[in-house]
Specification:
Elements lengths: L4 E8 L2 E8 L4 H8 L18 E4 L2 E4 L12 E3 L12 H8 L9 H14 L5 H7 L11 H20 L8 H6 L3
Parallel strand pairs: 1-5
Antiparallel strand pairs: 1-2, 3-4, 3-5
Amino acid sequence: MTAETRILRLHVNGSDVDVAAPSHWTLLEVVRYRLGLTGTKQGCDKGDCGACTLLVDGRARLSCITLAGDAVGHRVTTIEGLVTKDGLDLLQRTFDEAGALQCGFCQPGMIVAARACLDAKPEATRAEVKEALASNLCRCTGYTKIFEAVEQAVRAGRAAHTNGPASLVGDSAALAGGRR
C-alpha cells in the first residue's frame, strides 16, 4: 500500500465495508471499481449528467464529484441497495412498467434521484419531481415517461398507505428474476 492509499470504512447498502483506495478517488470510483457495484454509472466525471447519482444519508449525491473519504460515517445507497428481500423498489418497478427509459444508462441515477425525492416528499408534484431530477440527463427520451413513472409511484404509495404495504409488493419478484 502506498502512502497515497488509505483504508476507508464505508457503510454501503446496509453493510460496513473496508476499502483500500487512493485518497483522491471519488465515491463513484470506489463503488464501481473497488466494490463492483456497477449500477452506478460513470458518465461525465464532472457533475453534469447525474448518471452517478446515489444516496448519502438518504439525499441524492453526485458520486463523481464526491471524494470517497467524505462518505466515511455516512450511509451510502446505490441502485443495487434499493432492492430488498421483497424485490425491486417501487420506483424500479414503475420505471419498467411505464417504459420510462430507452438505453438504460441514465436509469439508475434517475431512479435513485427519484427515490430521494419521494422519500423526502411522498406526494411530490410533477414540478417537484422535475426539480429533483434536474441534475439527471437522458439523451434518449423526452422525459415524459420518466415523470409518469414517478407519478405512478406516488399513486401506488398513496394506495399502499390506504390499503396497506402489501399492495406495493406486486410483481417485484417477477421483475427481479425475469418475467413469469
